[in-house]
UniProtKB/TrEMBL annotation, chains A, B:
CBS domain residues: 144-204, 207-263
Principal subcellular localisation of the protein: membrane
Biological classification of the source: Bacteria, Pseudomonadati, Pseudomonadota, Gammaproteobacteria, Oceanospirillales
Protein's UniProt name: Magnesium transporter MgtE
UniProt source species: Reinekea thalattae
Subunit structure: Homodimer.
Length: 452, 452
């Protein structure tokens, strides 16, 4: 959770801003924007402002700061703001942006404008950005920065230091890269090594080859796992020939982790992680309508199954009342399994290699929990409807449905992944459809067979 | 997603291990463990192994490596392994572990054993660990490490370099801390500044005071946000008096981000993020049974509401078939809103200050989407049951239920947070109960009033 105190400060800023807008006296906003708030804070404030007010607020941000604020905004909002600017205005705004951020931005605006922006850039920067645009956004190449400090293994510490003093070093620089004459990646040299070793020590003696070069086409989640497993601050990116072409820093990796976590959470509700929570009503409604439509279709599939048993229901109305209970117990048991498997696959703990063990384990869990809740729900049913046969039917249906649910929850992510479908996005809706259908079929089917 | 190739390698290791266990010839495991795998890999392998096999595999890890492997294991598994060791064995194992990792570990074992471990530690380390144990695990104090490199503002670069050469510096060190005579935090000095400035330059001229000291009791999520907003690699922790007491590094922050993201995802299915996915069947069943029980209770609440209308259902069986559709549309619409609000609160974008705007926006979305799907579902109902009045009733119920759902989804997280209940854990079950009850009440209520 965000700190309460921080929230309170932003609430104060917001009420100040709304007051200023209402009164038409914008000096308070100007003062606030130019003196009190960092570019990170300004981006946060824009992200938490309704879209109409946002455009007004954007105009109060000084041109020097606009580029930096842009890099901190989420894609949707960035896109919306850039969409209102000409290529010339964009070039003006993005002057101080690093090449990797710029490449990301250009991927989100219309190709015409982004071509024009590229043409207006200084030739060297243009080449850099075009190089980065060659890699998909969600790969190591899309994450990397091309400002590299490279040294050779056969020079000494003093030479490296002399070279570094000529450059303007980023504060967070933790290591420089060692390459051969042809820029083949060989290893890295920690900055701390430069402090503690003698000036005549050779780089080859103090460099480390522990950090392997990351392939430019490696998936960003794979990059994140390399950083996490080896506690890295920066890592080298190489092309297919082993040539060093860029470096990735931990701050970009943190963004990847956060975004993918958000993606997993939001996509389970059919939402887009780059979406703007303060988008206008119509835009939000449209985005969410698709998911509602998909779920409506699945609800009607379940309803169609149930309608096959209308004659049974007409005779024993209790079946209508108890059917949703059977379906929902399966849904919960299945979604627990599904969530565990999706996460286990993401962390690499669950693979095809231990799928069989996992299936048996989940079936065990299904039998135990299915048995337990079959007894409980059977008992409740006897108490409520005073019918032992109805209780036996619902107990059997609960047991069967929970077992089918955990088996589906285990297998479904593997099936979806083989079909290249994101299990986090579509897994839960497919699973719920299955558990609803199984639930209605087993309960109403058994009831029709044994109670009528 | 974890890289396919990496998964494949681990699958090979696993089949090698299972073969070795089956044949009773453990030399292959010993070779693998002592030569091919890093401690990070060993931890990963243990985490993806059923609990029985895990204890066998643990015994093949050399004593020198066991401590390091332990730090990379998740809490549940760490605890299980430590639980089988005496205090003396634990002390033997943890010799090379950093004090912050050790403090975390001791918080998870029985107080008797952890007291005994503390007594067996060298006096200085014991004091350090006890100092860390004073802070809750999920605060800045619980995350920090106490190995600090501190310099004074009135010395020059040469003095600092001379001092640093005497220490063994961690490779990832990006900055040292500047304090006054009383250890009050004053600012930080980037290592790169030491490389590029003249030996006689004073620290006071090149230090930065941009990074503010983090309060030792600050929540870990707040710490993560500070790191993300300012792209930090390390940050100072201060006590109430402003005295520098520790530093937090980005690798620990990455763990916090990952764990909290997992928590959000898993708790929505009533699961524990530190849980062991390879726990035995009985343990897993017990953990998940609670959530199934809670959901059973809510399903019966909804069933009780439905049973009030049994006479209506007996007359029009279509009501039984269509009721779940009405309930589920509300459930989906509500959970979309709930997910957005929970995430917006976590990122600080949504606060009480813009709750009113948010409510109006969501009501707008509810009216639009409710209206749209009321029309669609109404039309389907006419086609299916050839009854315009039934279609009108279900359309009205859909519209009302979706609007109530989005309003509940917006307000619920605020209500739960005020009551100090984690909205990610209990929000969705409460919301689904509400939307089921609203759905049955509006649909069956309207049907009873107008169709009978």
């Amino acid at each position: 959770m965000h700190s309460g105190s921080n929230d309170a400060i932003f609430d104060q800023y917001r009420s100040l801003i709304y007051k200023a807008i209402d009164s038409g006296d914008f000096t308070a906003i100007e003062t606030l924007f130019n003196h009190n708030l960092s570019t990170v804070d300004l981006a946060h404030l824009l992200e938490s402002t309704p879209s109409k007010t946002r455009i007004l607020l954007w105009s109060f941000i000084s041109e020097d700061n606009q580029g930096d604020v842009l890099t901190h905004l989420n894609d949707d909002i960035q896109q919306a703001l850039l969409g209102k600017m000409s290529a010339e205005e964009i070039v003006e705004t993005i002057q101080n942006i690093e090449s990797d951020d710029l490449a990301d931005m250009l991927q989100h605006i219309s190709p015409d404008v982004s071509d024009r922006v590229l043409q207006l850039l200084p030739i060297q920067e243009r080449a850099q950005v075009e190089g980065l645009l060659a890699y998909p956004e969600d790969t190591a190449g899309g994450l990397m920065n091309t400002d590299l400090i490279m040294v050779r293994a056969d020079v000494n510490v003093e030479t490296v230091l002399r070279y570094l003093r000529k450059l303007s070093l980023p504060e967070s620089l933790d290591r420089v890269w060692v390459t051969d004459r042809n820029l083949n990646y060989q290893g890295s040299l920690a900055i701390t090594q430069l402090l503690t070793n003698r000036p005549d020590e050779l780089v080859s003696n103090i460099m480390s080859s522990d950090i392997k070069g990351i392939d430019a086409y490696a998936d960003e989640e794979e990059v994140a796992q390399v950083f996490e497993r080896h506690d890295l601050v920066s890592a080298p990116v190489i092309n297919a020939e082993g040539i060093l072409i860029g470096r990735i820093t931990i701050d970009d990796v943190v963004d990847v982790i956060r975004e993918n976590a958000d993606h997993n959470m939001l996509s389970m509700a059919g939402l887009d992680e780059e979406g703007d929570i303060f988008a206008p009503v119509v835009k939000s409604s449209r985005e969410r309508a698709v998911w509602l439509g998909i779920n409506m279709a699945t609800a009607f599939i379940a309803a169609a199954v149930m309608s096959r048993f209308e004659t049974s229901i007409a005779q024993i109305v209790a079946l209508a009342v108890l059917s949703p209970v059977v379906a929902s117990m399966g849904g919960i048991a299945g979604s627990q399994t599904l969530t565990l498997i999706i996460r286990g696959m993401a962390t690499g703990h669950i693979t095809r290699g231990n799928l069989r063990w996992m299936l048996l384990r989940e079936l065990g869990v299904g039998l135990l929990n299915g048995g337990l809740w079959a007894l409980v729900i059977g008992a409740i049913t006897v108490g409520w409807y005073h019918s032992v046969s109805l209780a036996l039917v619902i107990a059997a249906a609960i047991l069967v449905n929970i077992c089918l649910a955990v088996l589906s929850g285990t297998l479904l992510p593997f099936v979806l992944k083989s079909a290249n479908i994101d299990p986090a996005l579509s897994g839960s809706v497919i699973l719920t459809t299955l558990t609803d259908v199984f639930g209605f079929l087993t309960f109403l089917g058994l009831a029709t067979a044994f109670l009528l």
